[in-house]
Design a protein that fits this description.
single chain; disordered N terminus; binds zinc ion
Length: about 325
């Protein structure tokens, strides 16, 4: 892209220039010297990607399950084994689908973006200690906006309502997402990764972090209110996210964050507690109260045959 030069890219003028010259920073410098040489790191990161993610998933799931057994907050309303079977089968299906459709996944795309110097951060060339945390925060903000969109657009809500239809909220709810939603959110993530030029290590860290925090903030665990109150300033806690799983639409329409709790506070979607309290509240969706609808096949069919109900961002609740 003519006119682009990395000189001065670390200064404020460099940032402004890159923004003004959009989408130049997406393509600069295809032929020029690569800022990052991922030839060695690429192979090891790609091969250990699955192992790191799987280990993180099993480790956090085991830990939160143990916490749920030792100190559960709410009695479960639906048979646990059946729910767990369906929820974990969905994770298996999602993982398989993503592997088939996007073999390298977001990390693979980040490697290509780094090699080609695509994206804002690859253009700016900041130090890793600034760039990696910044990319993680931006990816998290993107996820917040995406979550709001999944509540606002009726067709997307159809996919997302499978996640909300769980009659209980526990560690496995955190990974219960319809394959259609997972494919769509992966596509969105790929676009965001390329646009911002997130480093592969930032994308991998974000993926592992998101998986861990999603399991954590959906878990049915008791936690002293003082600890919850403090943690809420740095991470979305189970008490905070549980409000989002209330059957009351105006409560479902709050606390969209998954990792960082700041977006909800900044954009006015933060709600401290459900009106009926953490134990008195009802979880799930009003239109799906029958545990018999929890079978894997019926869950997968939900977006196509289920009633949308009062999807939160379009109707009053
Ligand atoms: Zn939601």
């Amino acid at each position: 892209m003519e006119g682009f030069s990395p000189a001065g890219s670390k200064s404020l003028a460099g940032i402004l220039r890159a923004l003004v010259d959009f989408p130049g920073y997406l393509t600069y410098p295809r032929e020029g010297p690569k800022r990052n040489d991922y030839s060695g790191k690429e192979a090891s990161m790609m091969s250990s990607d699955t192992l790191i993610r799987l280990s993180g998933f099993l480790c956090v799931l085991s830990l939160m399950t143990l916490w749920e057994i030792l100190a559960p907050l709410r009695p479960l309303s639906a048979p646990k084994l059946r729910r767990w079977g369906s929820n974990l089968a969905v994770v298996g299906l999602d993982t398989l689908l993503i592997r088939v459709l996007f073999s390298g996944g977001p990390v693979g795309v980040a490697v290509v973006a780094a090699q080609q110097s695509w994206g804002l951060l690859n253009y700016l060339g900041w130090a890793s200690w600034v760039e990696v945390p910044l990319a993680i925060v931006v990816l998290d903000f993107g996820l917040y906006l995406q979550h709001v969109m999944f509540h606002a657009v009726p067709a997307f809500w159809r996919l997302h309502m499978m996640h909300h239809s769980d009659l209980d909220c526990d560690a496995t709810t955190g990974v219960r997402f319809h394959p259609g939603e997972v494919v769509l959110s992966t596509l969105i993530k790929l676009v965001v990764v390329v646009l911002i030029g997130a480093a592969p290590v930032a994308v991998l860290s974000f993926e592992v972090l998101l998986n861990a925090t999603s399991i954590f903030n959906h878990s049915n665990v008791r936690m002293p209110s003082g600890v919850d109150g403090l943690l809420r300033w740095i991470v979305v806690t189970p008490h905070m996210h549980r409000v989002h799983h209330s059957v009351v639409p105006k409560e479902t329409n709050s606390n969209f964050g998954f990792n960082l709790p700041w977006w909800d506070r900044l954009f006015g979607t933060y709600r401290e507690n459900p009106a009926l309290g953490q134990i008195g509240m009802t979880l799930g969706l009003q239109q799906f109260r029958d545990p018999a609808r929890l079978s894997l096949a019926r869950m997968l069919a939900l977006p196509f045959v289920g009633e949308t109900g009062n999807y939160p961002l379009s109707r009053e609740g």
